[in-house]
Amino acid sequence: MDGSWPSDILIEILMKLPVKSIIRFKCVAKTWCHLFQNPSSISRHFNISKKNKHLVVCHRDGDNDNFVIRLFVDQALVSYHDLHLPFHFASIDFLEFRVDNGLFCLLDPLNSVLALWNPATREIKICHECNKNIRSKFYTLFLGTIGFGLDPLSNDYKVVYIRKYHESGKDIQEPAHYSIYSMSSDSWREFKDEDVEFLRDYEVCGSSNNACVNGVYYWHTCKFINSSCDYFFKVLAFNFSTEVFQLIDSPFSKRGGRLLPLHDRIAIWDTDLLEDIEISNEVWVLDDDGRHWTKVLKIEIHVLQVKKLFGFWKNGKVLVESVTGELLLYDLEKEEVQTRVKRDFSYVYTYEESLVAIGKK
Predict the structure, then answer these.
(1) Which residues of 57-75 are buried (b: 16+ CB within 10 A; e: fewer)?
(2) Environment class of residue 141 by beta-carbon count within 10 Å: exposed (0-12), middle (13-18) or buried (19+)?
(3) Exposed, middle or buried, 238 (CB in 10 Å: 0-12/13-18/19+)?
(4) pLDDT category of residue 61 using cuts at 50, 70 and 90
(5) Sign of the alpha-carbon torsion through 201, 207, 213, 217
(6) Which element (helix H / strand E) includes 310?
(7) CA 244, CA 12: separation in Å to the nearest integer?
(8) What is the number of other CB atoms lying within 10 angstroms of the CB of residue 47?
(9) Are the C-beta atoms of 257 and 221 separated by less than 8 Å?
(10) Could you give the CA distance from residue 19 to residue 121 in angstroms, rounded to a whole number?
């Protein structure tokens, strides 16, 4: 590498730069361009970025009702700037939004438009439609949800797309369709009926209450019990490396709760938006065996009426939503609110910049 600086020191400095600066420096020298495209350098840069994670929230603009992605640039959640969504997704009626390892996954469920987006490099890939013959003019989409994450073994980003249709004008539903998209091959694979037969009686809950941890995506699922007119909840896990689904018993079988990451483990917080359900405010984490849960703490927020826990932040703080729709940064030890953001938020994620190239389609 040219220059008077030792190459190892120069590389160390470059790896700490934001993506915007690195993109500009690609044209300085061919060696720099190759460096920033090297998978090991991309991984190294991302690991450094993770030490300074940011918060991204998705909400609707009060003026035009468009979706807006807000990126907070400080740890106190005071300073921010808005990321402009790719054109198609800004003004749609419904948006499924996921974030993992520096990339965003966007779904317009009504039109089955799926895209991968790297806001740091400003690249977007509109994924080609999965199995165009599934839906006919006689069927309408009843449920559409996604799971998105990085396969740590192949270093490939993947999307699980779950769709359920019903015949127009009739109360007849088809079994859910399960498919998976690979970014590296730009291709879809349909799951065989026998691979998902055990999920036939379960409804996968498509909401912001789901999460991806260490290459495994977790959803809430529920099963309606006719004899008791009640719902029975479990957790559905999908391993992006093995591409296998697994049902896991939930510590709260009568209600969904909130799935969220906690110290590289999947956790579940016992909360529910239904006021007539008694909740414990306990947080449980999934054990290493992938089947059992252990209670780790109980979150008591005495000074607030909280309806949702978005996630754990830094230094003993949690991100919660109040009953008035505010996003709050709450210090559990001091029992005080540190920051109030007056918005009605749909999704809240942690985010780190990535150099991963996704190409344009």
Answers:
(1) bbbeeeeeeebbbbbbeeb
(2) middle
(3) buried
(4) confident
(5) positive
(6) strand 306-312
(7) 39
(8) 11
(9) no
(10) 7
Rounded to whole angstroms, how far apart are CA atoms 67 and 61? 6
* C-alpha closest to that of 116 among 165, 150, 93: 150
Task: Quick: pLDDT tens for 104-152.
Answer: 999 888 788 899 999 999 999 999 877 655 555 445 555 678 999 999 9
CA pair distance 361, 356, nearest whole angstrom: 16
User: What's at 194, amino acid-wise?
Assistant: E
The CA–CA distances, whole Å, from 122 to 68, 84, 181, 198, 355 equal 16, 10, 21, 40, 10
Whole-number Å distance between alpha carbons of 295 and 147: 26
DSSP summary character for residue 280: -
Q: 324 near 18, Cβ under 8 Å? A: no
- Tell me the per-residue pLDDT of 62-99, one tens digit each, with 9 for 90 and over: 677 778 888 888 877 788 888 888 877 877 878 888 99
Query: CB of 69 within 8 A of CB of 83?
Result: yes
CA–CA separation, 287 and 227 (whole Å): 32
Q: Which amino acid is present at 268?
A: I
| The token pair that represents 180 in the structure block | 């998976």
